[in-house]
Amino acid sequence: MNKVKAILPIVLKILLGLVFIFSAVVKIIDMDKFELYIYSYHFFSLNFSFLVARVAIIVELVLGIGLVSNCFHKLIWWGSMAMLAVYTLFLTYALVLGRTDNCHCFGDIIEFNPWQSIVKNLVLMLLFLLVYRVKEFRFKGRWLALIGVTLAVSVAVFVVSPPDNFTPSYDPEHNLQEELFDGILSESPLDSLNLKQGKQVVCIFSTSCEFCRLSAQKLSLMQQLYGFPPENITYVFMGREEGIARFYEESGSAHYQDVLYEDAIRLLKVTNGYFPVIVFMEDGHVMHEYNLRNMKESEVKAFFQE
User: Fold this and answer.
1) Does residue 229 have a pLDDT over 50?
2) Which whole-number Å values give the CA distances from 69 to 37, 83, 113, 151, in the listed order?
3) Cis before residue 162, ω within 30 degrees of 0?
4) Backbone angles phi, psi at 122, to 5 degrees
5) Tens digit of each residue's pLDDT (9 = 90 or more) over 85-140
6) Residue 231: DSSP 8-state
7) 212 shares its domain with 103
8) How far apart are CA 117 and CA 40, in angstroms?
9) pLDDT confidence band for 170 (50 / 70 / 90)
């Protein structure tokens, strides 16, 4: 019986570590959405949000590995409690703002709103109280091992999911075919929208494209942050009419004027078969062209605010 009492806290500690590791791994899988969730609060720039997302995952992984290995018990225990407390305070702020969307603590695999995630964190903190007195495993060179694990995890996270600003941008010259693009702007159904007047943003999306949904969310967050007129943003969709409502719902994008372009073959030629394509224009001249990965917040901000 005494052996069972001694083993149970260790088993519980390992399970808590596996929860942390699972949480970190699913965040990596849904990294784009996790980045945009952090950016949506506008505490940080887009590029810094990339870094914050990865640091959060690295901390969670290191703590999870520390819990499973039963090394540095007090350090890992206090670190875990501190992380849960910080997340709980952040989620409380989200509740004050009225946010009810998925907080991405378990990616898209298990969706929790802020209130549910707060309850989850409080339960975890209570479970951590049960393992406070676990005797840690000690060995020579354990500090060196901790540094090595932290460095290895950090490198692995950045290699598996490098930030967009760390990776070469897709060459935009091979995307938008400007002559064909100019042609569809002058023809029905786009000719009536006066897209060649003033500053306009034209987004060419497929209703079934995940990268398009992420791009729409990113652009929408920037538009709301910098106050660009929403009437000057147009979504040109390839797909089916019923897919447009689902696109807005799944992307979390604000609603802008949109057009379903029925000649899919021609639209594919305009984008050279690549989606998404986001075009920033002024008086009909293409100023910037972006996809999901190469959208530069500094350029977008300058365009939106000039």
Assistant:
1) yes
2) 31, 19, 31, 17
3) no
4) -65, -40
5) 999 999 999 999 999 899 999 888 888 999 999 999 999 999 999 998 888 777 77
6) G
7) no
8) 18
9) very low
pLDDT computed for residue 174 by the predictor: 56
In angstroms, rounded to a whole number, what is the distance separating the alpha carbons of residues 192 and 261? Answer: 14
User: What total number of domains does the chain contain?
Assistant: 2
Cα torsion through 281, 283, 285, 287, rounded to 10: -40
Q: Edge-to-edge strands of the sheet including 285-290?
A: 257-260, 233-238, 199-206, 277-282, 285-290
Are residues 108 and 227 both part of a single domain? no
Q: Same structural domain for residues 20 and 54?
A: yes
Question: The tokens of 97 are what?
Answer: 């703002």
Between CA 4 and CA 244 the distance in angstroms is 57
What is the residue range of 218's domain? 172-305
DSSP string, 35-63: HHHHHTTTSS-HHHHHHHHHHHHHHHHHH
162 and 178 co-located in one domain: no
Q: What is the CATH number of the domain that holds 240?
A: 3.40.30.10
Q: Within 13 Å and on the Cβ side, how many CA atoms surround 281?
A: 24
Residue that finishes a domain, picked among 140, 166, 192 = 166
- Dihedral of CA atoms 275, 232, 225, 178 in degrees, nearest 10, equals 40
What is the reported pTM? Answer: 0.87
Q: Measured between alpha carbons, how far is 127 from 294 in angstroms, rounded to an integer? A: 43
